[in-house]
Design brief:
mainly beta, 20 strands
Length: 471
């Protein structure tokens, strides 16, 4: 989809919402100055103007002019107030972290040390910090950064047979001679600026989590019932974050609340956080409804449509008597994702489920060659499907939730004969809220990996013990 059309639609919505906000605030300010009412949401009642006698025309015109001037001044005041800085402290810093013990005591030999830990291990998983600032009236900025130990210790793909198979980030510490220090990385999870026009229309610009389902946007370890997020969030059905523009809003209708999200972004790509490598912009959205008639029930549907493009370094070629600059395509495919979610909470009962479907089709010149032992074999078009369900009950006399979750994943566009195409996951666990901002989890996990040829790789059984806390 062309960029200019998408941006024009977003700009039109933004301008319409801002004009509506400015003039409604102006009318409110005019009425408040006359009545002393400080409620911004109060709308002035229409007043029938009396029919003026001819002799009073000049006086009436003067009154109208004065009223128009007062209204214009009120609008200007309201708009100026929007940009007034906040003098009091307005920056909040908070975050979450988790610590996990993993023991996969039953695992096929060829899986050890690959996708699952080969030996019992302690690990610090997340250390996510949020910087939340109110810049002015209706203006908010938020950044989330995850601190990592990576890439130290992660597997290298570009190694010869005798090379060290993992990244080693140990370097000499010039501050303390004789000591080595391990330098690590960070991952920017989100960073955006938001303008709050009204409950119905708000706009964000920057990098934001893709508004699909439940646990992608709110991915804190404190919120997720299991020790880890469901496989459908980790398996690449959609870009977990996007860089672009997002509109969102809500509307109350009696006992119901309706909400929406609309996005336009660079989409998915190797460097999509700071550069788009094709002309197509990705679009997406989410529509949900919520009611508290019987507990709290939320139903939602989401979609994402975009194009992935990876390109080689620019090169020049002679075409006739002209020198042409080309950027060859390494990989390119179109994708479409649709998802549905449900969450119901009632007197300690929790039922939650998400389902997601993804379709991927390579363009004419975008199908890459296989790598390594798959050289000469091209990846196929295909579809992926995954869903999960969680059921739990928070005990009334103890902040303990026994729960069970079940997941299923079907892969569809791996290299032919190169790996599994189905995973079944069972989790049985306890979620204990020790403090309002601290949770302990104990989970027994069972995984089944089904290969392309239908063979079963057997059971993968393990224990996951996690402490998660917020600060």
């Amino acid at each position: 989809m062309k960029t200019t059309k998408l941006l024009s639609c977003f700009a039109s919505l933004l301008v319409a919402g801002f004009v509506n906000f400015a003039f409604s605030d102006g009318a409110n300010a005019q009425e408040d100055s006359a009545t002393g009412n400080d409620d911004e949401t109060t709308l002035s009642e229409p007043v029938d103007e009396p029919v003026a006698e001819p002799i009073a025309t000049a006086s009436a015109t003067k009154k109208t002019t004065d009223a128009d001037a007062a209204a214009a001044a009120a609008v200007a005041t309201a708009m100026l107030d929007t940009y007034q800085p906040i003098t009091e402290k307005h920056l909040s810093i908070y975050g979450f972290a988790d610590f996990t013990y993993l023991d996969w005591f039953k695992m096929p030999t060829d899986f050890r040390g690959k996708q699952l830990a080969a030996y019992p291990t302690f690990t610090v998983g997340h250390l996510n910090v949020y910087f939340d600032a109110t810049l002015a009236r209706r203006w908010r900025a938020l950044a989330e950064v995850q601190f990592l130990y990576l890439p130290h210790g992660s597997d290298r793909e570009d190694v010869e047979e005798d090379d060290y198979p993992r990244y080693n980030n140990e370097v000499f510490d010039y501050n303390e001679p004789g000591k080595d220090v391990t330098w690590s990385g960070i991952s920017v999870e989100r960073v955006w600026l938001e303008y709050q026009i009204s409950d119905l229309l708000n706009i964000r610009a920057g990098q934001f989590p893709t508004p699909i389902g439940i646990w992608n946007v709110d991915h804190s370890s404190l919120v997720i019932i299991n020790a880890f997020a469901p496989y459908l969030i980790r398996a690449g059905f959609f870009p977990q974050t996007q860089t672009g523009l997002e509109l969102y809003g809500t509307k109350g209708l009696g006992d119901f609340l309706l909400g929406y999200n609309l996005t336009v972004s660079n989409g998915r790509g190797p460097i999509d956080t700071w550069r788009d490598l094709d002309e197509n912009k990705a679009v997406g959205g989410r529509l949900y409804g919520r009611t508290r008639l019987l507990g709290e029930l939320t139903l939602g549907v989401s979609f994402y449509k975009g194009q992935y493009t990876d390109r080689d370094a620019p090169e020049t070629q002679m075409q006739g008597d002209k020198i042409v600059s080309l950027i060859p395509i390494l990989e390119q495919y179109d994708e479409f994702t649709i998802a549905a979610d449900l969450k119901w909470e009632y007197k300690g009962i929790l039922l939650q489920s998400e389902a997601i479907w993804n379709e991927r089709a390579y363009t004419k010149h975008g199908r890459p060659n296989g790598k390594g032992f798959q050289a000469g074999i091209f990846p196929r078009d295909g579809r992926m499907l995954s869903y999960y369900a969680v059921a739990g009950y928070r005990l009334p006399w103890l902040p303990l939730m026994p729960f069970y979750s079940w997941e299923r994943y079907f892969g569809g566009y791996v290299y032919a004969g190169s790996g599994y195409n189905s995973i079944i996951i069972h989790n049985l666990g306890l979620n204990y809220r020790m403090l309002p901002n601290a949770v302990a989890k104990v989970v027994y996990a069972n995984h089944h990996f089904v290969m392309d040829d239908g063979s079963n790789e057997g059971r993968h059984d393990g224990i996951e013990i996690q402490l998660a806390w917020g600060f």
